[in-house]
Amino acid sequence: MKERERCFTCHNQGLPIMALATVQSRGVDINAAELRKQTEFTAAFLERNRTNYLAGRGQGGQADTAGYALWALENGGWKPDATTAAVVEYLLQWQDAATHWTPQSRRPPTEQSLFTSTHAALRALATFGTPEQKPRIEKRMERVQAWLLKTAPQDHEDRVFRLRALHVAGAPAAEILKATTAILDTQQGDGGFAQLPTKASDAYATATALVALHQTGGLSTDARAYQRGLGYLLNTQLADGSWRVVSRSKPIQTYYESGYPHGTNQFISITAAGWATTALALALPKAHEKVKPSRVDRLIFPPEHWHNHGSCLVEAPNGHLIACWFHGSGEREADDVKIEGARLRRDAKEWSGRFTMTDTPDYPDTNCCMFIDPHERLWLLWPTLLANQWESAPASRRYMPPRGADGRPQAKTIKHAHFNLEWLMAGEAMEHVGGR
């Protein structure tokens, strides 16, 4: 037990260091002394074995231990030194005739994938390699990149860490895009990701996907896929702040109680928590960044003599703003009153042209309201005055139908002559109708 307490592990040191450092970078107060303590613990662990690393022998866990330990030091802000150079030297010598690095044990999902081991080693070379080691590092990178490009991933862990490895190896942007799309295509209906096609979504698979998609695949944390993934993580977090993930590994060591929840599932669960905390923190602005206003005042259309009021504004999940109001020559007593709308795309500076959302011929449609429900359906509600009196006004409604597991509407979109709710939410083209 004493020996275990002196050993670095990716689940109890590596991933917590990454999570704490990411949270701290977002301006959240953490136990900075504990972060430094764990980083120094990792450095001391490698230092005790420096002679073995220089000799190319490494230590238990081999490339996985070396790669993850240097990744932990990177996240902890550790500067290159003689020990990190020794570990890089070992990684250059270890399996030097191969096109990739191979794990020493099979404990899925974290210790099984060739891509996971290869990414950890590549990242260490790129981060801590010395100028003297650079020529050999570049040759190894070229060899590994060729292997990455021609080797297909077999499961979720492979897809996630193949994307990461391609990024570190400097693969072409087109290959990065294909690897990113391959992960996005496996997102489940609940917003999560699964380790295997036969398994349900879990926090480990979901969080590793989100962090990789954002850090190396270029996916914005505001993107719908990322937000759906965050929703899954928030919905599955337990009251004690942890996530429970069931282990797929067969025990190869005597059971060790670390004090983290979930018993025999504690090590994959704490790993999942490290990734999940990182994914959540990445959605926050960095501490040194000033959050700029995402919107500025814009006229939807120039002032005019027509009545335009009773407006409502909503923000769609993809960041578009949608506005509605009633428009006509009068209000209750004018039979030409209809509901109009416009949209401001998230990436646009000007509102779209105004368009008719609903118009009951010869009756005034007034006092419109919109909202987006928990299923991300857009609703439009309004009263139609049948006898030009409020007491003769039945309420009307239209909504976008719910989406299926593939993200598509389960039923045909409810349409009006000039208006399509699905188009409006998705930000696609729509038929516009000019103002009066």
What is the structure about, briefly put?
The chain is α+β, with helices and mostly antiparallel strands and 436 residues long. It contains 14 helices and eleven strands. It has two domains: 281 residues, Glycosyltransferase, CATH 1.50.10.20; 120 residues, 6 Propeller (Neuraminidase).
What does this structure look like?
The relative contact order is 0.08. Helices cover 40% and strands 12% of the residues. The chain is α+β, with helices and mostly antiparallel strands and 436 residues long. It has two domains: 2-282, Glycosyltransferase; 307-426, Neuraminidase (6 Propeller). Strand 1 and strand 2 form a beta hairpin. Helix 5 (62-75) crosses helix 7 and helix 6 crosses helix 7 (114-128). It has helices at residues 2-5, 10-25, 32-47, 50-54, 62-75, 82-93, 114-128, 134-150, 156-168, 173-184, 203-215, 224-236, 266-282, 421-426, and strands at 193-194, 201-202, 307-315, 321-328, 338-344, 355-358, 369-372, 378-383, 395-399, 415-416, 419-420. The protein is elongated and about 90 Å long. The strands form four sheets. The chain has a four-stranded antiparallel beta sheet with strand order 3-4-5-6, with no helix packed on it. It has a three-stranded antiparallel beta sheet with strand order 7-8-9, with no helix packed on it. A two-stranded antiparallel sheet has the order 1-2. The longest helix has 17 residues, at 134-150. It contains 14 helices and eleven strands.
